């Protein structure tokens, strides 16, 4: 046996082992795939997703579907087989993990951020729909997240509207009100209470809290920070009556805002906005009713098509990406504002061949 043959015999197993290691080693990528869609007008388990107690509501035919994307979690490690599988699948997408999950955020922080965004999107959607119906809505400083085990846990509630601190009314400007609250909390002596007056279910409630100094440990050294009560604040609203949107708490992010607003509007107006048809869509929405861009548009389009949607609302700033989506015979309509989207649905409900805003315009 020659030396070359011996070298080849030895090398083959080594090369094979290296190839196997390369194939199963974790890669720094995250994949997007079509997620489930949810008819926001539905009543799963007999409980309506859109609830407006004390008001006349209209439950007619038709569907308004919010769309989601299935994203591999930050802590997941994908190997070459998995990444290539998503790469060749026309319905999926592959992104560098750092582009989806910043390194400076833990999985828990990413989840919390998504929950805050969901609360904010629901409240803004309610505000947009009610204003479209002629109701008066007032912006206010709102509790949008409560840290477990914090002083606020069990005392405050998500969607509490901050009104006063120790009997002193907070400024009407939301940024000034937030600064005033933080200032008061940090000025509270250790072990003493601060009393927040909040608007909860239409009633003012006094909530006494004892701020705690935040602390963190790094390399065995504990660092103590400023006093805090463990809440995240954002823009909320004072509504003329209660409206609630009940969605699985595992779903986060702001991208369902447009569909929430349309579903609330439909629930509070006679007849079916969609004319009994199936409409899906996506898009963040702000208080002025402007529809903002979102991520995963191509996967959301595929998910909606697979769930039988006939019309899909695409945020204007997502049009370029949507042109490459596999929508087949599902019609894509450009949505710039809430009013535009509503008008498009109404026109389509009367005539499925109506001339509607398009990403090709």
Could you name the key traits of this structure?
single chain; 361 residues; 6-stranded mixed beta sheet; 4-stranded antiparallel beta sheet; 9 helices; 18 strands
What would your notes on this structure say?
It is a single chain. Helix 4 packs parallel to helix 6. 31% of the residues lie in helices and 27% in strands. Helix 8 links the parallel strand 17 (311-315) and strand 18. The protein contains nine helices and 18 strands. The strands form six sheets. Strands 4-1-3-14-17-18 form a six-stranded mixed sheet. A four-stranded antiparallel sheet has the order 7-6-8-9, covered by helices on one side. The protein has a two-stranded antiparallel ribbon with strand order 2-13. The chain is an alpha+beta fold and 361 residues long. It starts with a helix and ends in an 11-residue tail after the last helix.
Regarding CATH, which class of the largest domain?
Alpha Beta
- Helix-strand category: alpha+beta
SS element count, helices: 9
Order of helices and strands: HEEEHEHHEEEHEEEEEEHEEEHEHEH
| Percent of sequence in beta strands | 25-35%
> What CATH architecture of the largest domain do you see?
2-Layer Sandwich
Number of strands: 18
What is Rg? Answer: 25 Å
Strand order of the largest sheet: 4-1-3-14-17-18
Question: How far apart lie the N and C ends?
Answer: 73 Å
- Can you tell me the CATH topology of the largest domain? Ribosomal Protein S5, domain 2
Q: What number of structural domains do the residues give?
A: 2
């Amino acid at each position: 046996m020659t030396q070359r043959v011996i070298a080849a015999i030895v090398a083959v197993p080594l090369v094979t082992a290296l190839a196997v290691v390369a194939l199963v080693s974790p890669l720094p990528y995250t994949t997007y795939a079509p997620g489930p869609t949810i008819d926001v007008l539905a009543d799963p388990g007999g409980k309506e997703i859109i609830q407006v107690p004390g008001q006349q509501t209209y439950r007619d035919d038709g569907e308004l579907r919010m769309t989601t994307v299935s994203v591999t979690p930050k802590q997941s490690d994908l190997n070459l087989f998995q990444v290539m599988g998503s790469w060749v699948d026309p319905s999926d997408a592959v992104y560098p993990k750092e582009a989806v999950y910043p390194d400076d955020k833990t999985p828990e922080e990413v989840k919390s951020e998504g929950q805050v965004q969901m609360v904010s999107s629901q409240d803004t959607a309610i505000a947009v729909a009610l204003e479209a119906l002629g109701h008066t809505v007032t912006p206010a400083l709102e509790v949008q997240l409560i840290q477990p085990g914090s002083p606020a846990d069990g005392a405050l509630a998500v969607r509490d509207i901050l009104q006063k601190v120790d009997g002193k009314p907070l400024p009407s400007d939301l940024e000034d009100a937030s600064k005033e609250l933080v200032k008061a909390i940090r000025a509270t002596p250790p072990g003493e209470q601060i009393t927040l007056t909040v608007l909860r279910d239409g009633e003012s409630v006094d909530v006494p809290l004892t701020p705690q100094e935040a602390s963190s440990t790094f390399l065995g050294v504990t660092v103590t920070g400023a006093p805090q009560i463990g809440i995240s604040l954002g823009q909320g609203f004072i509504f003329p009556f209660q409206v609630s949107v009940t969605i699985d708490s595992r779903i986060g992010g702001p991208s369902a805002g447009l569909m929430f607003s349309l579903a609330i509007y439909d629930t509070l107006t006679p007849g079916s906005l969609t004319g009994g048809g199936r409409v899906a869509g996506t898009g963040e929405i702000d208080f002025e009713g402007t529809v903002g861009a979102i991520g995963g548009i191509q996967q959301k389009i595929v998910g909606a098509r697979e769930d039988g949607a006939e019309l899909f609302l695409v945020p204007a700033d997502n049009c370029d990406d949507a042109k490459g989506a596999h929508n087949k015979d599902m019609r894509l309509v450009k949505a710039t504002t809430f009013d535009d989207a509503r008008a498009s649905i109404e026109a389509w409900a009367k005539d499925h061949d109506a001339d509607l805003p398009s990403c090709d315009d």
